[in-house]
Design brief:
The chain is α/β, with parallel strands linked by helices and 355 residues long. It has 8 helices and 28 strands. InterPro entries: G1P_thy_trans_l (IPR005908), NTP_transferase_dom (IPR005835), Nucleotide-diphossugar_trans (IPR029044), Trimer_LpxA-like_sf (IPR011004).
């Protein structure tokens, strides 16, 4: 069995972060989202991975390398344009051969991994198996319709009027039967070859398509709100570890990680929090559900429920929360300016100004 990991795409919902960085490499708890997926694949006993890459191919290659650090063997497969998930299967045809495979979207996050799912697929081997989860607004996802027996009878991509609240999670398992399906479908109104259309083709052809409704935690980390929520979830599982320096004037409370080479000076850190190597927190407060990457500076400020990427500084700006701050960012106070009101008033006006 092989894995096909999708690591292309523009990441428009995470701009401006993704103007200069691959969305799959934005970190949660100071580790790239993509790495959690690769670790899940390796834990499931799958070692041959095809990595679909696009405009950010060089950055993905630099981060993942040959895959050996994850116990994997990675083959990079260029996709000139993001033309849909079914198109990714088409361009990966030579790599996949006639093997079964798991397709994993590199910006998805699943607590607990995929080992049980892969084991079930290997044991029962349907033509396709999909993961589903209940969501409050399914219009933003691929949506599955099940019959009274729980059998998949229909799939729609981002429907205006969903037939259920069951959204497709970004993990799919296929036998080679899917190759005929992806070649048979036509581009959607979005101009993409949709994997939902290919699975629907299998259903219509009488193939065995099964589903698993997951009850655990899943997120598509394609926007800032979900990224912060995944960061919170991962940080909740931390175990306290102080490898760096915390001076006597500082206090660390709860599940706090201070990596080797990091310094906390005259500050209060309330977990769950991770402070990356080489980072200094001075005269500041860092509150729960915050991850600060390596080589950052937090000075005379308050930070909570946020992600700060490497080589950034926050100096003297009061309180920041619910924020995603990119690499090599400087956050400082605005220069003071005189306070004034500019008015254009008609005749006989009455104005009250609070001073």
């Amino acid at each position: 069995m092989k894995a096909l990991v999708l690591s292309g795409g523009a990441g428009t919902r995470l701009r401006p972060i993704t103007h200069t960085s691959a969305k799959q490499l934005v970190p949660v708890a100071n580790k790239a989202v993509l790495f959690y997926g690769l670790e899940s694949i390796a834990a499931a006993g799958v070692t041959e991975v095809g990595m679909i890459v696009g405009d950010t191919a060089d950055e993905i290659r630099e981060a993942v390398g040959d895959g050996s650090r994850f116990g994997l063997r990675v083959t990079y497969i260029p996709q000139e344009r993001p033309l849909g998930l079914a198109h990714a299967v088409i361009v990966a045809r030579d790599f996949l051969g006639d093997d079964d495979f798991v397709m994993y979207l590199g910006d998805n996050f699943i607590v607990g991994g995929i080992t049980d799912l892969v084991d079930e697929f290997r044991r029962t081997r349907p033509d396709a198996q999909i993961l589903l989860t209940r969501v409050p607004d399914p219009r933003a996802f691929g949506v599955a319709e099940l019959d009274s027996a729980g059998q998949v009878v229909g799939l729609e991509e981002k429907p205006r009027e969903p037939k259920s609240d069951l959204a497709l999670v970004g993990v799919y398992l296929f036998t080679p039967a899917v190759h005929e399906a992806v070649r048979a479908v036509r581009p959607s109104f979005r101009g993409e070859l949709e994997i939902t259309h290919a699975i629907q083709w299998l259903i219509d052809a009488g193939a065995d398509v099964r589903s698993t409704i997951i009850k655990g935690y899943w997120k598509d980390t394609g926007n800032v709100v979900d990224m912060l929520e995944v960061n919170r979830t991962v940080l909740e599982g931390l175990e306290r570890r102080i490898d760096g320096e915390v001076d006597d004037a500082s206090e660390t409370v709860g599940r706090v990680i201070v990596e080797a080479g990091a310094r906390v000076v005259n500050s209060r850190v309330v977990g769950p929090v991770v402070i990356g190597a080489g980072t200094e927190v001075r005269d500041s407060y860092v509150g729960p559900f915050t991850s600060v990457a390596e080589n950052c500076r937090i000075t005379d400020s308050e930070l909570e429920f946020s992600i700060v990427l490497r080589d950034s500084s926050i100096d003297g700006v009061g309180r920041i929360e619910n924020s995603l701050i990119g690499r090599h960012v400087e956050v400082t106070p605005a220069p003071g300016v005189p306070s004034a009101h500019r008015l254009v008033l008609g005749d006989h006006s009455k104005v009250q100004i609070h001073t």
